[in-house]
């Protein structure tokens, strides 16, 4: 495994948002930063990994997680998620392919038993054409009071 000590995880300043689009395009990803989302990146000088946290129903929806192919298998996705979520209040929800459930469970995500209505509707639409599961982490993420 490569050293990740020289990797810096940080909230990307709004003026630097175009760098995220460039990162996604460079890796032929259709992902983009949603309007109003916090964009978190892991970088040395260049961006090596990114994710978005969109405020939603007293929590956040995690989308757009991507690690550059040359930086994979170094723990960057886990490092970036942990860094961003340690600085984010409230529950966090995400949708993932069933093959990724183990990865997210190791980071403390559990199957979401209750989703905010906007996410429940979106998941139902997505599930018409994709195998996706909803996971959640944080207080209230599983429908507790």
Please give the structural blueprint.
Layout: E1 8-11, H1 17-26, E2 38-43, E3 47-56, E4 59-67, H2 76-86, E5 92-96, H3 101-106, E6 110-111, H4 117-126, E7 133-137
Parallel strand pairs: 4-5
Antiparallel strand pairs: 1-2, 2-3, 3-4, 5-7, 6-7
Describe the structure using short key phrases.
7 strands, single chain, 7-stranded mixed beta sheet, Aminopeptidase, alpha+beta
Structure overview:
- By secondary structure, the chain is an alpha+beta fold.
- It has 2 domains: 1-89, 3-Layer(aba) Sandwich (Aminopeptidase); 90-145, no CATH class.
- The chain has helices spanning 17-26, 76-86, 101-106, 117-126; strands at residues 8-11, 38-43, 47-56, 59-67, 92-96, 110-111, 133-137.
- The protein has a 7-stranded mixed β-sheet with strand order 1-2-3-4-5-7-6, with helices on both faces.
- Strand 2 and strand 3 (47-56) form a beta hairpin.
- The chain is globular and about 40 Å long.
- 32% of the residues are buried.
CATH fold name of the largest domain, please?
Aminopeptidase
Number of domains: 2
Q: What would the average pLDDT be, to the nearest integer?
A: 91
Characterize the overall form: globular
Radius of gyration: 15 Å
Percent helix, as a range, is 25-40%
CATH superfamily of the largest domain: Gcn5-related N-acetyltransferase (GNAT)
